[in-house]
Amino acid sequence: MKIVLLSGGSGKRLWPLSNEIRSKQFLKVVKSEQNEIESMVQRVYRQLTAVTDAKITIATSASQVESIKNQLGDKVSLVVEPERRNTFPAIVLSAAYLYFEKNCSSDETVIVLPVDPYVDNGYFSMLNVLDKAVQDNAADIVLMGVKPTYPSEKYGYIIPESTDSTVNPVREFKEKPDAKTAEKYISEGALWNCGVFAFKLSYLMNLVNSVVTGNKFSEIENHYNDFEKTSFDYAVVEKASSVAVVSYNGEWKDLGTWNTLTEVMDNKPIGDVIITDDCKNTHAINELEIPVIVMGANDMVVAASPDGILVADKVQSSYIKKYVEDRDMRPMFEERSWGEYKVLDFAVNEDGTKSLTKRKKIRAGKRIEYQSHKNRSEVMTVISGKCIITVNDRAHEAYAGDTYAVAEGVKHGLEAVTDTEIIEIQVGKELIADGTENFEENNKLS
Amino acid sequence: MKIVLLSGGSGKRLWPLSNEIRSKQFLKVVKSEQNEIESMVQRVYRQLTAVTDAKITIATSASQVESIKNQLGDKVSLVVEPERRNTFPAIVLSAAYLYFEKNCSSDETVIVLPVDPYVDNGYFSMLNVLDKAVQDNAADIVLMGVKPTYPSEKYGYIIPESTDSTVNPVREFKEKPDAKTAEKYISEGALWNCGVFAFKLSYLMNLVNSVVTGNKFSEIENHYNDFEKTSFDYAVVEKASSVAVVSYNGEWKDLGTWNTLTEVMDNKPIGDVIITDDCKNTHAINELEIPVIVMGANDMVVAASPDGILVADKVQSSYIKKYVEDRDMRPMFEERSWGEYKVLDFAVNEDGTKSLTKRKKIRAGKRIEYQSHKNRSEVMTVISGKCIITVNDRAHEAYAGDTYAVAEGVKHGLEAVTDTEIIEIQVGKELIADGTENFEENNKLS
């Protein structure tokens, strides 16, 4: 059995904590049984590895690679989509990766799961049931369905032929019915479609080969845009002749909006926040270094990050997407494989010169790429830690208070000896896509 | 006639827009008839100078001097209290200043006004009535009282002997009666005490001389702490034998809390703010450079500044003081005579080394003092404008992208040629009171 976790989405509905780079699954807002705050991707990965030794591969886009490595470690196995094209291309690419790169047998069960459902451990115990159903040839595709707790109008329903066995053939799929119809479906044993698919690798490889034939992963990868930009449900599952389903009866939540996310958060605010006693059912998360005080608020969520500040009635907050979508905002913080940064200041002068001031945290042993920039100068000032700063092939030990000003075109890099923080000021006509060149670094102190 | 404006207060009730240095009167949140946003001190000064040519002196504390000059100009006449001691010492000090420094005649009328009432222009037209009453010797002290609009429990009441004339003798003063008693007072013609006092300079000089005798302003100033730390009302007015009052019948508001302040603000948010249409009676002010989105809020105020973020029900917001009081926060932004700065970042390392990153705006022609610091280094990076940076007596022209790193003990200064912005990073064991020395600067380019 191999596991493929799909990590996608941009999560504008959880603005300002999520952005283009930090999708909702990376927000550290839920608590483990050990009372530690973790992200959804950390929670799901922890739950998965607790119940199975199966190899896990995460299918994701390039923009999420650094966040995933930062949260799960460098050793996690990744399939990086050459571009974002929905779940059908992402799943077939993962199959090709397992087949060609990991030499998996065609007979092996592959189970595809979304990376961000909030579930109890029983959800993951069902993977063995799915595996057995696939190996028993119960159907080409075996789905997991969630036993509905109310006639929701916003989910897809899987309607089984019967509810007699553990594994039942699927009769049909229905998307987002009205509540009355949903009630009828539920009385017939219908389950919510939670995006969990299981099949033999051979089944998927046939799908791959129907579009692209090749003998190497790179051949499939290079033809990624030949695969239709559509969902796996639509492209495959709903058209398949042999589909079965197993039922999961336990907690399952899609934490896609502030309203649902705050349901699983405890009441303690996160960050530097005072919520006064006269507030009711109000959640606050503050990732800024300035205090937040919330007084006399009912049923509200307050969220502050370097990207912005949201103050919203919980129900209204689900409409946030349209207000955020139009704004073309650069992310004000990012996790990177070497650590993280946040933007402290951004300015554009009358003459078009721009400046960007960042605070960067580089973890001990990590390095920022050795590079030069054509159109901007940079000033790096160490504010804590010990690092080696290399400028034009000369390496220097640097400590709090040390500054290196790097002109346009000058090669520079930094390797953190201990955890290091710097303030970096970029000044130039063009700060992004400015002709950055990367170089091999020799940062041995002379 | 001479005017003395009292500018005091720290304004914790309007946190996070007001702080120790920026009292409520400096907040730019009210609109002039010309639809320009101005502060209360700017509004009152503008209204005053429109109706009278009388010389205006502002009595204030050292911490407010730079804000006042920044908002009203360098030429404003100031009496700076050697320490904060309440209105009685502040008013007698102002009298000594007018008498000794400005050579005012003893017979001249002095009218003392608070700097922050929100009133219509008719309020200032009353000054001539007060002047005439003083010159006619109607009483030793002539007060202005505001005709009450409701039986408030939070104001002081001036009860006149009668309501027959424009100027009526005062019978007694009553502080904060209950509503029923207030109603009785109002039926007897009582007025709200709005802190406006008029008298001849001689009357005040007698008060000065009863505590300190001297022939120079500096002698009075040096004995400032001999004057009791009490209000002018308590020390003088309530004990005086000859007090009269004139009535002002017009708009008068004390904008001391978010609840009252938002009453006079229009509904348009200030700064980068979206208030969605489903909000009711909600105000938002954002002084940060990141967006604020407010959704589904009723009767709330949202205020964000570099000091913090407040989200409050308007009525509850009047209790904010206790939540802010305990926090010993350094102000994260300040107006200075040369411009303004805000703190972008502050950090303390494990070994106790601190760092502080500021963005400073220096107005064309202004300079930052030429000085050195014993215990911290500084890095100045110009991000816009043209300036002259002097380091160890050598002056350099500097433009966007130029950086000067200044070690501990090294003299440095900056003069803005055009409006200039810099990012300044301080690193050291002690950032405040760190043995700063000031020097005479020669910033001629060699």
Q: Tags for this entry?
A:
5-stranded mixed beta barrel; alpha+beta; homodimer; 6-stranded antiparallel beta sheet; 446 residues
Work out the oligomeric state of the chains in this entry.
Answer: homodimer
Q: Look at the structure and give the mean pLDDT of chain A.
A: 91
Name the helicity range of chain A. Answer: 10-25%
Strand content range of chain A = 35-45%
Largest interface: A-B, 63 and 63 residues
Note the gap between the termini of chain A.
51 Å
The count of strands of chain A amounts to: 29
Structure description:
Two copies of one chain form a homodimer. By secondary structure, the first copy, chain A, is an alpha+beta fold. In chain A, 21% of the residues lie in helices and 37% in strands. Chain A is built from ten helices and 29 strands. Chain A has helices at 40-51, 62-72, 87-101, 122-135, 179-187, 201-211, 217-222, 232-235, 258-264, 321-325; strands at 2-7, 30-31, 37-38, 55-61, 77-81, 109-114, 117-119, 141-146, 156-160, 167-175, 191-200, 243-248, 252-254, 273-275, 283-286, 292-295, 300-305, 308-313, 333-336, 339-348, 354-362, 367-372, 376-384, 386-391, 394-399, 403-406, 412-416, 420-428, 437-438. In chain A, the strands form seven sheets. The first copy, chain A, has a six-stranded antiparallel β-sheet. A five-stranded mixed β-barrel of chain A has the order 8-11-9-10-12. Chain A has a five-stranded antiparallel β-sheet with strand order 25-24-27-22-29, with no helix packed on it. The N and C termini of chain A lie far apart (51 Å). The mean pLDDT of chain A is 91.
